[in-house]
Structures are given as structure tokens and as C-alpha cells.
Predict the structure.
Amino acid sequence: MTYDFTPLSRSFIGFDRMANLIDNAAKFSGTNAYPPYNIAQLSDDDYLIELAVAGFGESDLEIETHENVLSVIGTKAANETNVGEYLHRGIAERGFERRFQLADHVKVTGASLVNGLLRIELKRELPEAMKPRRIAISNHDETLISSKPCRKSKAA
């Protein structure tokens, strides 16, 4: 099943990158499910990606970011242990490359490999210029009224 997003991109002026992301996601969804992964939002600005990489060591994994794309690459040499003849071989020892599109200002803050799970920590760090700021509202009428002299009424 394919979708044509061309009509949407005609009405999204200045959102070319967003249209390309949607198009790429539609093309590559479900094509490769290895290795399985979780994405968790820990707080408003903190995220965690967990990849199940059983059988891979730290030296077999490479993590890099480039132009808002996080790439996790696993290369595994064939296991040549003398276990005997396998009757069933269900543990995947093949290499992989998994890519994640990161939003602007999302940075990788750390990675760890524990019990076969590769945990990649991410944090959104907005520059000060992009953070919301509160603007004080002043009442110019009050300053004009308080600066005028008060008139005394004739009835007094």
C-alpha cells in the first residue's frame, strides 16, 4: 500500500522537510524490524531509545549522529564456536543499521549496553532564543492619567 502525499506538499509552504519525512516514513515502514526497539519519553525534554542487541558487544556497535539522523550500526562476525551441529538457529547474529530521524535541537547525551539492551539517552535542548518568554503588559492609559493634574470639583 502506497500513499501519494503530493497534494499535501502543495499546500505546505515552507514545510518541505516535513513532507519529505512523511514520504520517507511511508516508504520504509515495516521493511526491517531487526533489531526490535522501544522509544520512551521520560519527561518533556528527555527521551530514551532501547534496542535489543543480544549477542553484540560494545566493540560491535557504532552510534553516530549527522544532520538530525541518529544511526546505530551493528557489525557481527560469524560465531565460529565449536558447539556442535545446530538443530535450530534462532539467535540473529546478522549485522544491522537502524536510523532514527531526530527533531531539531535533540542531542544524544549518553549510551549504555546492559543485559543485551542498548540504551541511548536523548535530550531536547532549545536555545534561549527559542524558549518561550513572558512579555509584561503595561497599561499606558494609567501612566497618562496619573501624570495629569487632578481638577477640583466646584461643588466642594
The mean pLDDT is 77. Strands lie at 37-41, 46-52, 61-66, 69-74, 96-101, 106-114, 117-124. The chain has two domains: 1-31, 33-127. The first strand starts at residue 37 and ends at 41.
